[in-house]
Inverse folding.
């Protein structure tokens, strides 16, 4: 999974997010202030661990990120169906690289 956090609720929590689509370099870093503390770890282990990410889920959805169960988070570009994506820009044609001619008289 590509969502990681730094910090503890209540208070500011920094989120690091990377797109899990193969070959996608998209990354996001953002801070959220989470007001309520997580449930006690003895009572609810998963609720305690996932507390911050649960609070961040609506924000991520607003930004266009989607969560695919078993795959992970996809950025807004990768979340758009391929049939609706704009084509990536084609690289321009470049002529063959030319070497500079050497002076037959040698260095001057």
């Amino acid at each position: 999974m590509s969502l990681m956090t730094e910090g503890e609720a209540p208070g500011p929590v920094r989120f690091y997010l990377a797109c899990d689509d193969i070959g996608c370099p998209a990354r996001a870093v953002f801070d959220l202030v989470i007001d309520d503390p997580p449930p006690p770890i003895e009572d609810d282990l998963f609720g305690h661990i996932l507390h911050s990410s649960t609070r961040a889920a609506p924000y991520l959805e607003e930004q266009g990120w989607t969560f695919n169960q078993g795959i992970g988070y996809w950025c807004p570009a990768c979340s758009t169906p391929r049939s609706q994506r704009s084509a990536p820009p084609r690289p321009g044609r470049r002529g063959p690289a030319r070497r500079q001619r050497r002076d037959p008289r040698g260095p001057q």
